[in-house]
Amino acid sequence: MTKKALITGITGQDGSYLAEHLLARGYEVHGLVRRVALEDSSRRFGRINSIRDQLTLHAASLESYPSLFHVISRNPFDECYHLAAQSFVAESFSDGFSTMNTNINGTHYMLAALREIRPECRFYFAGSSEMFGRVREIPQRESTPFYPRSPYGISKCAGFELTRNYREAYGMFCCSGILFNHEGPRRGFEFVTRKITSTVAAIKLGMASELRLGNLDAKRDWGHSADYVRAMHLMLQQDEPDDYVIATGETHTVREFCEMAFEQVGLDYRRYVVVDERFYRPAEVEILVGDASKARRELGWAPQYDFRELVAEMVRSDLEQLTRSGGALRYAAWPVG
Ligand code: G4F
Predict the structure, then answer these.
(1) Percent with pLDDT over 70 in the chain
(2) Whole-angstrom distance, CA of residue 115 vs CA of residue 238
(3) Ligand 1 touching residue 255 (CB < 6 A)
(4) Cβ(251) – ligand 1 distance below 6 Å
(5) Closest ligand 1 atom, CA of 216?
(6) Based on CB atoms within 10 Å of each CB, which residue in 38, 63, 67, 182 is the most buried?
(7) How far is the CA of 86 from the centre of ligand 1 (A)?
(8) Could you please report the per-residue DSSP string of 109-161?
(9) Can you tell me the distance from the alpha carbon of 309 to that of 315, in angstroms, rounded to the nearest whole number?
């Protein structure tokens, strides 16, 4: 029988890759989108345009329990991937309250509605390596204690605990992926990788002259979103629900990302990168590097992209997009990060 999956956050980077992955496996794929997105679909549906006619989209809001209840009560979903969130860490320092509201209550509403109407539906929660924050051990694994450093990280810890609690209290099939940073050509321009690759492309094409960044020494374990959505799906296919770290096991500084991205177009990053205090965070996560051996062992998951391929694909894609759009599609000064 055809499986039905619901994806919250389907218009985002991960949502779009996951939707493609599930469609290719014969799923009927549904997505939750905000009404404003439906009204502005040409701009907001950029990542799902090519599969739009294969999807069923429902207008609902994570802030409204009745709207979620309405969609879930009318569709017998087998799997639910809860990816929607305010996911930009810098923004969570500017507006911690709305980050908390969307990320914590939104997750709670989803779990509560499923428990009420579809307790048999399998649930995936998008946990984050930001939960490790000021890391207690290197590398980080499932047993590493959390020490979040931002309202975003705190909200993800709450979502993670809610997900575990619904699993333990109500016997629901609820899993969390503790995903380390994952990127790709569909990444939003505000995140550091895409800010770098889109500006590298702009500099190469003579449309920009510098790249202003914050902390160049922060270290991240950067993988590719297309690899990471495979892990989400695998988690919901197991006999028992559980939580898994998903990471490459390699860490690089923001500086190294810059160096490699500029190298792709034959330029030296030191001539263009300017450190700008405005992009520093009130509390930084200095180093993230994950140990995904449980996922490798139990899910049979392994990343296919390495760091160099990830950076090269992003730079190549930004060069193409920028050339095609005549300069319209690129990072435009983000107020906080
Ligand atoms: O790209 P970022 O904004 O990602 P961050 O904060 O690591 O969070 C991402 O990964 C998490 C998983 O660990 C997700 F949960 C979360 O939703 C998001 O996807 O920043 C990466 C690093 C930070 O240390 C930041 O301080 O880059 C540093 N950085 C330096 N200059 C900058 C900049 N980040 C941004 N966004 N902009 C800068 O100009």
Answers:
(1) 97
(2) 20
(3) no
(4) no
(5) 30
(6) 182
(7) 13
(8) HHHHHHHHH-TTSEEEEEEEGGGT-S-SSSSB-TTSPP---SHHHHHHHHHHH
(9) 10
Token look-up 């800010």 returns 195
Distance CA 17, CA 126 (A): 14
Tell me the whole-structure pTM to 2 decimals.
0.97
pLDDT (tens digit per residue) in 185-197: 999 999 999 999 9
Domains of the chain: 4-182+222-246 (3.40.50.720)
Distances (CA, A) of 236 to 47, 57, 239: 24, 22, 8
Active site residues per annotation? 128, 130, 152
Kindly state if the Cβ of 279 falls inside 6 Å of ligand 1. Answer: yes
Contacts 24+ apart (CB under 8 A), 135-141: 135/285, 135/286, 135/287, 135/288, 138/287, 138/289, 139/247, 139/249, 139/289, 139/290, 139/291, 140/178, 140/245, 140/247, 140/288, 140/289, 140/290, 140/291, 141/245, 141/290, 141/291, 141/293, 141/294
User: In whole angstroms, what is the distance from residue 198 CA to residue 211 CA?
Assistant: 10
- The 3-state DSSP class for residue 6 equals strand
Asked if 125 contacts 178 with a C-beta cutoff of 8 angstroms, the reply is: no
Contact 80, 122 (CB under 8 A): yes
pLDDT in tens, 134-150: 999 999 999 999 999 99
SS (H, E, C) 29-95: EEEEECHHHHHCHHHHCHHHHHHHHHEEEEECCCCCHHHHHHHHHHCCCCEEEECCCCCCHHHHHHC
Q: Which two tokens stand for residue 134?
A: 């000021």
Q: Is the CB of 129 under 6 A from ligand 1?
A: yes
User: Is 7 in a helix, a strand, or coil?
Assistant: strand
